[in-house]
Amino acid sequence: MPAKGYLSQPQKERLQKALSESDNPKLTQRILMLLLMDDGKTYQEISDWLGCSYRSVAYWCVHGDPDNLDSLNDGRSQGNYRKATDEYIKLLMDLIEKEPTELGYEFGRWTTARLSTYMEEQTGIKLSGEQIRRILNQKKYAYLWAKYSLEDKQNPKKREAFKEKLQGYLEASKADPEKIQVWFWDESGFSLRVIRRKNWGKKGHPKKVTGKRSRGRVNIMGGLRFHDKKRMCYFIEKGTGESFYEQLKQLNNFVKNEWVTQGNNELDFSEFGPKILIVLDNASYHKKKTVLAEIETNLPNIQLYFLPEYSPDFNLVELVWHSAKEYISHRLFKSVDELKKILDRLLNEGELIIEWGRRIKNKGNAAIAN
């Protein structure tokens, strides 16, 4: 370490002038290191005074040349590296809003590495992916899972017609549930093994995950009544035409028993009981001819109302499944029976609290909950 007063007067004046004119905080800090060292301060004292690392002080006090101020700039200021300009950032903000396919690329999403490469080609300014990430973070962007979109497969005209008709049914069910009830119907599976690619482990030793999903799986079929958000869910082996018909029979009996407890005659249910409109998707076993015939013959109060293709957002029960899966994803279950018990409490006994106004993640559009 040079002794106190090692700088000549011209060197000292040159450094002090550069200090007063500099608008670069890094350069200012390195000039101060040399001046403080000339004042007799130790590396540790300079480090404490400037709030930087001891290692940085040791480096610049040795490599900084008071006769050559360029020596106080780091190597990144040479070669291809240049600070991002306002024009660079504006171009980057425009780019991030475009799909790669709009620019002729086959890949589906921008990574910071791809952004860096493209921006270097366009501007000649080379920034690392990490630098790109910092700029985007400052502009309030985050690298998130994208919402799964079904819009390219949907028929807008069919969806609009369905929505308008459904809204009429919903208003009627609210006004007079003794005449018509709307039930949103679907099937879902819950598993003891939630497959996630991300996992906790020691750095450099990633854990392996298997692709098996069937172990410890619980399948549920059921519905959600619109006007009072009543839920009726049934455990099934798997979704088939037979299991679908059996659960509709149970739902029909539930509504019939409600109607009878209001003082009505059970024998009059088919003629005077409420119409049960079931909103459901286009699964093949929902449309099985033998099943449809049995429903028409034996369950005359039930009418099936099929969703437009690729429109799960119109099915409000999706929000029930999503909320239930969120609840169980952070809890431990040692057996399928334990999982069934908690699901029964959540779905059938009303323990599951649902935010009806929220959007369903990865279901394309937003669910109707009004």
- Average pLDDT reading: 85
Number of domains: 3
Order of helices and strands: HHHHHHHHEEEHHEHEHH
CATH topology of the largest domain: Nucleotidyltransferase, domain 5
Assign the structural class, choosing from mainly alpha, mainly beta, alpha/beta, alpha+beta, or little secondary structure.
alpha/beta
CATH H-level superfamily title of the largest domain: Ribonuclease H-like superfamily/Ribonuclease H
Distance between the termini: 74 Å
| Sheet with most strands | 5 strands, mixed
Strand order of the largest sheet: 3-2-1-4-5
Taken from the alpha-carbon principal axes, the silhouette is elongated
Name the helicity range. 40-55%
| Low-confidence residue ranges | 77-81, 361-370
The helix count comes to 13
State the CATH class of the largest domain. Alpha Beta
Count all strands and give the number. 5
CATH architecture of the largest domain: 2-Layer Sandwich
Task: Give the C-alpha Rg.
Answer: 34 Å
Strand content: 5-15%
What does this molecule look like?
- Strand 2 and strand 3 form a beta hairpin.
- 18% of the residues are buried.
- This protein folds into three domains: 69 residues, no CATH class; 53 residues; 181 residues, 2-Layer Sandwich (Nucleotidyltransferase, domain 5).
- By secondary structure, it is of the alpha/beta class.
- Helices cover 42% and strands 10% of the residues.
- Strands 3-2-1-4-5 form a five-stranded mixed sheet, with helices on both faces.
Summarize the structure.
The protein has 370 residues and is an alpha/beta fold.
